[in-house]
Design brief:
The complex is a heterodimer.
Chain A lengths: L1 H14 L47 E7 L2 E4 L3 E3 L1 E9 L5 E7 L9 E2 L2 E2 L5 E9 L4 E8 L2 E6 L5 H4 L2 E7 L4 E6 L3 H15 L2 E6 L2 H10 L8 E4 L2 H6 L9 H4 L14 E13 L24 E3 L4 H14 L1 H13 L3 E2 L3 H10 L4 E5 L2 H9 L5 E4 L10 E8 L6 H11 L2 H11 L2 E2 L29 H11 L4
Parallel strand pairs in A: 1-4, 3-11, 12-13, 12-14, 16-17, 16-18
Antiparallel strand pairs in A: 1-2, 4-9, 5-8, 5-10, 6-7, 10-11, 14-20, 15-18, 15-19, 15-20, 15-21
Chain B lengths: L1 H7 L8 H4 L5 H28 L1 H7 L2 H34 L5 H9 L6 H12 L4 H10 L10 H26 L2 H9 L4 H30 L2 H5 L5 H12 L2 H26 L24 H32 L8 H31 L3 H10 L1 H4 L2 H15 L7 H25 L3 H9 L4 H12 L1 H17 L2 H6 L7 H10 L3 H25 L6
Helix pairs in contact in B: 3-14, 3-16, 3-17, 3-19, 4-14, 5-6, 5-9, 5-11, 6-26, 7-9, 7-15, 9-11, 9-20, 9-23, 10-11, 11-14, 11-20, 13-14, 15-26, 16-17, 16-20, 16-23, 16-25, 16-26, 20-23, 21-22, 23-26, 25-26
Classes of the chains: A alpha/beta, B mainly alpha.
Chain lengths: 480, 543
C-alpha cells in the first residue's frame, strides 16, 4: 500500500527540524515541524539539512513582518498565538541577512556565541530563512508551539552587533465550537482531554452529519461553528464549499489518500467496508472473495444492506471509480434482484445478521466490535474483508475541517492537530476499533492491518462525486 | 370558516358570521396574533426554500412514486388515528367513569407511552417482535415457532405508532370526560337507557370535539414521524424528506416536499373541523355539576382489567422490559454507565418551561376560537397545527435560518429553543383547552361580567380555575412530548445542552444499547411524576 511509503518519507522529513522541501505537499510548503501536539519536544536540530532554494508559505497562516537591518531584528509584533506562523522578512539594510528562529527561555542578548556566531546546536532551532540580499523580501511558514523565542541573524558577528529580538508565542485561549457528526459517547472523553490539556473552552453540538451540514448552510455566514467533525467523506465533501484550507503541517500528518485533495479536510480515522456474516449458518470460507459475487442467485434473500447510508454510498462511488459506471449498475441491479433486506443504517444490519434475519450484510467494520463488547464473543456475527483490491474492502474516513467563517481558527487548528496526536489516535483505535491514520499507532489486535487488507488502489479524493452515485442509485431504484 | 360560524349562530342565517362575531378583546387578540406569526415562520421558511428550488422541485414532486408515497402515508396516518381512538376511548372511560380496580394507577401508566421516542419504540418492537426477536426465541423452545409474522412495513408501523401515540387521544378524552356534566348521562339513564346506550348516545357525542382534537394530533404526528417508519421500513413521505437531507444534503428539495406535508395537514384540519360537529357541549342547567357516580363494572371488571393490562403490556411494559434487558446485559458485559444528572435536570427543566410557555400561548388561541368564533379566530387556531405536521428537522432548520440571521444573540440559547418547542407542541395544548372550554357555559363568564368584573379579571379569576383540569392535561401533554423531542434540541439547544432524549439518541446511534437504555428508562420514570400528579389531582371543576 502506497500510504505507508508516504508515511515513511513523511517521518524522515519531520525528523529534520530544519527547513526541508516537501515535494509531496500541496503548497510546496516548508515545515520544520515541532513534533505533533501535546507539547512534545521538538525534534533535534539538524545543521546539515539543506533548506533548498524554494521557501514555501502557507497562505492561511498569520504573518509576522520582520525588518532586518544593521543592526537590529524588528518584528512588527512581539507575540502571536501558537500555530502556523509566516515570517515575512525584509532586508532594509545594506548587507546580506538571514532570520533564524530559536526556541529558548534565555534572554535574547545572552545566547552562547562560538566564533562570532550563536551556537545553534545549543538551542532548539525551529527554522530559518536563509541569507538574502538587501532590498529583498523572503517569507516562510513555521509551526510554533507556545513559549519564548529569540529571532536572530546568525551571519558572523551580526548577532553580537545586536541583530536579535525576543518573540513570544502564546497559548491559544478562548472558545472553540465543534459541530460533531460523530457521537458524544465516542468524542466526549476526547474533548475533555483536549480541554484539560489546553485550557480552551470547548462547546460541542452533536447531531447527524446531515443535520449539522444543513444547519451550517442555514446559518449562512453566521455559523458559530469552528470545526466540523464528520463521519464520512461524502458529508465532508458536501460541506467543502464552507470549509477553509487547512495548514499544510496538519494535512501532512495523514497520507494523501485520506485527506481532501484541496486541503479542505483531513481524515482522522479509517473505516473499512466489510461483509458481515452470521456465524451459525456460514464460515468465512463460504464467502466469496469479491463483493461482485453476491449477485449470484445463491445469495437471494440472504443479504442485508443500507442503500441510504452515507458509507454505503461512498463504497458505491469507489466502485464506480474502480470498475466503471456500467459494472457498478450491473452489481446494484444484481443485488437488487437478489431481494436484499433494506436497513436504515449499519447498526441494525449487524443486529439482523447476528439474529439470523439475513445471512450477510454490507457494513463498516467497527460496528461489530461494539456489539462484541456489549454482548460478548458469543455474538453470532463476524466480519470478512473482501480480497484482491475489491471495492467491497474500500477504506473510508471520518474527518474534520475548519469553517471559513470560524472565529477561532487557531483553537480549531489545535483541535485537529490534537485529533491526529498519538494519544487521540490510540484512543480511537482502542475505543472505536477504527483504523488510526497517523504513523506509529497500531490498529486493535484482531483487526487485520491495513497493509493486509487488500485495500483497493484509490484515493478518497475521488469519492467526492456523491451526486453521480445518488443519480445511479435512484436510477436503479434502490433509493427513492 | 362557515362551520364555526354556524356552530355559534345557527339561528341567525340572515347575518353574516362576520357581523355576528363579537370582535375579540385586544388582550387576547394580540398574543394570539403573535403566536400565529411565530407559527408561520416554519411555513414561510418552507415556502421560501421551495421557490428557491425552482423547477427541480416541481419535477421531483410530480413523480408518480411521490404520489404513491403520499397516499400510503395518509393511509397510515388515518389508520393510526382510527386505531388510537379505539384504544384510547375505552381506556379513558374505564379510568375516569368506572370503578375499575386501581384505576388511577392504570390512568398513569396508559399516558406514559407518549414519552417513548418513536425510534426507541421501533427498536424495541424489532428486538422483541422481529422475525428472530426475543418473543420468537421464547416461543421457539416450547412451541417450535421459528419465525414470527413480519413486523416490518405497514403493519409494524401501524402497531408501533398506535401504541406510542394513543395517549394524545387519551389525554384529550379524559379531560373532556372530567368536565362533562354527569347530569346528562343520569337523565339518559333515568329515561331508561342502559349503560352502553347512554355511552353511545349521550357520552360519545359529547366527546366528539375531544376525540377529533386528539385524533388530529395523532394524524399529524404520524405524518411527521421519521424514527419509527425508517426502522420499520415503511416508506413514508417524511422518510423521503429525511433521505433528501441525509443522502443529498439537499435542503431545497426537502423543503419542497415539506410543503406537500403542509397541504396534507390542511386537508386533515378540514376533516377534523367537520368531525368536531357543530353542537353545544356545555351544560345549560342552573346550579353546579357534581362528581359523577362511578359505573359499577361488577363481573365486567375482569375483562376490563385484562384489556387495560394488555394495552399497558404492549405500550409500556414491553419497551421498559427490553430497555431493562439491554441495560442488564450491558452491565453484565462490564459496560460502564455514567448517569447523566445534568441531562436529567435539563430535560425536566426545559420541558417544564416549554409546558408553561406553551400553555400561556395556547390559552388566548383556544379562548378566541371558542368564545369569539369567526373567520379570524378559526384561521388562527387551524394554523397552530401546522408545525405539528412538519418533520422536526424542518421546523428546527427554519429556526436556524431565522435565528442565526435575525436574532443572532438569541440563536442557540434556551429562550429560542423554548419558542421552537412552543411552536412544535402548541396543538397538544390548544386542542385540549379548546374542548374543555367548549364544555363551559359562557353564561358563567357573562354573569361574572354582569357583576362588574373586567374581562381580564373574569379570564383570570373565573375561567382559568374552571379550566384547571384541561389546562393541567395540556401542560402534562406538552411536558411529555418535549421530554422526548430530538431534532430541535440537537440543532437549537445551547452548546453542550444534553437531555435524556439526546443521551438516548447518541448512545443508540452508536450501538451502545446499554448506555441508551439508562437515559430512556429515566425518561419514562421522570415523566411518570407529572402524570401521576395530574391523575391524582383530577377532579370535576366546581363552578
Amino acid at each position: 500500500m502506497p500510504s505507508s511509503r508516504i508515511l515513511h518519507s513523511l517521518r524522515k522529513v519531520r525528523g529534520a527540524a530544519a527547513i526541508a522541501a516537501l515535494s509531496i505537499t500541496l503548497f510546496a510548503f516548508v515545515a520544520a515541524c515541532g513534533g505533533g501536539s501535546n507539547g512534545s519536544p521538538t525534534a533535534e536540530p539538524d545543521p546539515q539539512a539543506d533548506p533548498g532554494p524554494q521557501v514555501g508559505v502557507d497562505p492561511n497562516a498569520p504573518v509576522v513582518s520582520v525588518d532586518l537591518t544593521e543592526w537590529s531584528v524588528m518584528p512588527d509584533v512581539s507575540s502571536i498565538e501558537a500555530g502556523a506562523v509566516t515570517f515575512s522578512a525584509s532586508n532594509s539594510g545594506s548587507e546580506d541577512h538571514e532570520l533564524v528562529i530559536l526556541k529558548t527561555d534565555e534572554a535574547a542578548g545572552t545566547l552562547t556565541v562560538v566564533d562570532g556566531r550563536v551556537d545553534e546546536s545549543a538551542y532548539d532551532e525551529i527554522g530559518e530563512i536563509e541569507e538574502f540580499a538587501p532590498g529583498l523580501d523572503q517569507a516562510a511558514t513555521f509551526r510554533l508551539d507556545p513559549g519564548a523565542y529569540v529571532l536572530i541573524c546568525n551571519i558572523a558577528d551580526h548577532y553580537e552587533e545586536g541583530m536579535y529580538a525576543e518573540f513570544a508565542v502564546e497559548e491559544v485561549t478562548g472558545d472553540l465550537v465543534i459541530y460533531s457528526g460523530r457521537e458524544e459517547d465516542l468524542i466526549g472523553p476526547l474533548i475533555d482531554q483536549f480541554e484539560d490539556a489546553t485550557g480552551l473552552d470547548v462547546g460541542v453540538r452533536y447531531g447527524s452529519n446531515a443535520q449539522l451540514i444543513a444547519t451550517i448552510f442555514e446559518e449562512g455566514g453566521n455559523s458559530p461553528a469552528d470545526v466540523f467533525f464528520g463521519s464520512d467523506p461524502g458529508a465532508l465533501g458536501a460541506l467543502s464549499d464552507k470549509l477553509g484550507v487547512l495548514p499544510a503541517d496538519i494535512l501532512e500528518q495523514v497520507p494523501v489518500a485520506f485527506r481532501s485533495p484541496v486541503g479542505k479536510w483531513v481524515g482522522v480515522t479509517g473505516r473499512a467496508r466489510t461483509v458481515i456474516y452470521n456465524t451459525d449458518t456460514l464460515t468465512e470460507a463460504d464467502l466469496p472473495a469479491s463483493i461482485f459475487d453476491f449477485t449470484d442467485p445463491e445469495w437471494s434473500g440472504r443479504i442485508g444492506w443500507a442503500p441510504t447510508n452515507g458509507s454505503f454510498q461512498s463504497m458505491v462511488t469507489a466502485m464506480r471509480q474502480l470498475v466503471g459506471e456500467d459494472e457498478t449498475r450491473d452489481w446494484l441491479e444484481g443485488i437488487k434482484n437478489n431481494n436484499p433486506t433494506e436497513y436504515p443504517k449499519n447498526t441494525p444490519i449487524v443486529q439482523a445478521v447476528a439474529d439470523g434475519e439475513v445471512d450477510v450484510g454490507f457494513v463498516n467494520h467497527y460496528y461489530l466490535h461494539r456489539f462484541l463488547a456489549e454482548e460478548g464473543d458469543s455474538f453470532s456475527a463476524r466480519n470478512a474483508f473482501m480480497k484482491g483490491g475489491d471495492p467491497g474492502a474500500v477504506v473510508l474516513v471520518a474527518g474534520a475541517g475548519i469553517l471559513e467563517s470560524a472565529d477561532h481558527v487557531r483553537a480549531a487548528e489545535r483541535f485537529i492537530d490534537f485529533l491526529l496526536s498519538q494519544g487521540a489516535q490510540q484512543y480511537f483505535s482502542d475505543e472505536t476499533f477504527e483504523y488510526p491514520l497517523v504513523d506509529g499507532v497500531e490498529p486493535q489486535p484482531g483487526l487485520p492491518r491495513l497493509d493486509d487488507v487488500e485495500v483497493p488502489d484509490l484515493d478518497l479524493s475521488s469519492l467526492s462525486d456523491l451526486e453521480g452515485t445518488l443519480a445511479l442509485l435512484r436510477d436503479v431504484g434502490v433509493i427513492p | 370558516m362557515a362551520l364555526e360560524m354556524e356552530a355559534v349562530a345557527p339561528a341567525a342565517p340572515e347575518t353574516s358570521g362576520w357581523a355576528r362575531t363579537s370582535w375579540p378583546p385586544i388582550f387576547l387578540l394580540v398574543p394570539a396574533l403573535l403566536v400565529t406569526a411565530a407559527i408561520m415562520l416554519p411555513v414561510a421558511y418552507v415556502v421560501g426554500r421551495t421557490f428557491g428550488a425552482g423547477a427541480d422541485a416541481w419535477d421531483l414532486l410530480v413523480q408518480r412514486s411521490v404520489l404513491d408515497t403520499l397516499i400510503r402515508t395518509v393511509y397510515l396516518s388515518l389508520a393510526v388515528t382510527a386505531a388510537t381512538t379505539l384504544i384510547a376511548l375505552p381506556v379513558a372511560w374505564l379510568t375516569v367513569r368506572t370503578d375499575l380496580p386501581l384505576r388511577r394507577f392504570w390512568a398513569v401508566l396508559t399516558v406514559l407511552p407518549l414519552v417513548i421516542p418513536s425510534y426507541v419504540g421501533a427498536l424495541v418492537a424489532i428486538t422483541a417482535l422481529g422475525p428472530k426477536g426475543l418473543v420468537q426465541q421464547m416461543l421457539e423452545g416450547p412451541f417450535g415457532i421459528d419465525r414470527l409474522p413480519g413486523i416490518y412495513g405497514f403493519s409494524g408501523a401501524l402497531l408501533v405508532l398506535s401504541f406510542l401515540s394513543f395517549p394524545y387521544v387519551l389525554l384529550s378524552i379524559r379531560a373532556a370526560l372530567w368536565n362533562m356534566d354527569p347530569a346528562m348521562e343520569e337523565a339518559a339513564r333515568g329515561l331508561g337507557l342502559g349503560t352502553w346506550t347512554t355511552f353511545r348516545r349521550v357520552t360519545l357525542p359529547h366527546l366528539r370535539p375531544a376525540i377529533a382534537a386528539g385524533g388530529l394530533l395523532v394524524a399529524l404526528y404520524t405524518l411527521s414521524d421519521f424514527g419509527a417508519v425508517s426502522l420499520l421500513r415503511f416508506n413514508s413521505f417524511t422518510r423521503v424528506i429525511y433521505l433528501q437531507y441525509e443522502t443529498s444534503f439537499d435542503r431545497t428539495l426537502a423543503a419542497a416536499s415539506s410543503l406537500v406535508l403542509v397541504m396534507v395537514a390542511f386537508a386533515l384540519l378540514m376533516i377534523e373541523a367537520r368531525a368536531r360537529g357543530r353542537s353545544r357541549y356545555h351544560r345549560t342547567a342552573v346550579g353546579s355539576a357534581r362528581e359523577p357516580n362511578l359505573v359499577r363494572l361488577n363481573a365486567w371488571r375482569w375483562p376490563a382489567l385484562l384489556g387495560i393490562f394488555s394495552v399497558v403490556a404492549v405500550s409500556l411494559a414491553l419497551p421498559v422490559a427490553v430497555l431493562t434487558y439491554w441495560l442488564v446485559r450491558g452491565l453484565a458485559a462490564g459496560e460502564s454507565l455514567s448517569f447523566v444528572w445534568q441531562a436529567l435536570f435539563n430535560s425536566a427543566y426545559v420541558s417544564l418551561l416549554a409546558a408553561v410557555v406553551t400553555l400561556a400561548a395556547a390559552l388566548p388561541v383556544a379562548f378566541l376560537t371558542v368564545r369569539h368564533a369567526g373567520w379570524l379566530s378559526s384561521l388562527l387556531e387551524r394554523v397552530t397545527y401546522v408545525g405539528f405536521a412538519l418533520p422536526g428537522i424542518v421546523v428546527a432548520l427554519a429556526f436556524v435560518y431565522f435565528g442565526a440571521r435575525y436574532v443572532t444573540p438569541l440563536y442557540q440559547t434556551l429562550p429560542l429553543l423554548v419558542i421552537a418547542y412552543v411552536i412544535l407542541f402548541l396543538p397538544v395544548a390548544v386542542g385540549t383547552i379548546r374542548s374543555s372550554l367548549l364544555q363551559l357555559n359562557p353564561h358563567v363568564e357573562e354573569a361574572a361580567r354582569g357583576l362588574g368584573r373586567s374581562p381580564v379579571r373574569v379570564f383570570f379569576t373565573v375561567l382559568l380555575p374552571l379550566l384547571r383540569t384541561g389546562l393541567m392535561a395540556s401542560a402534562v401533554g406538552v411536558f411529555l412530548v418535549t421530554m422526548k423531542e430530538l431534532p430541535a434540541t440537537l440543532v437549537l439547544g445551547p452548546l453542550g445542552f444534553k437531555t435524556l432524549a439526546t443521551a438516548t439518541w447518541s448512545a443508540s446511534s452508536s450501538a451502545f444499547f446499554a448506555r441508551a437504555a439508562a437515559p430512556a428508562l429515566l425518561l419514562v420514570l421522570i415523566s411518570s411524576l407529572p402524570v401521576a400528579f395530574l391523575t391524582f389531582r383530577e377532579q370535576r371543576p366546581v363552578s
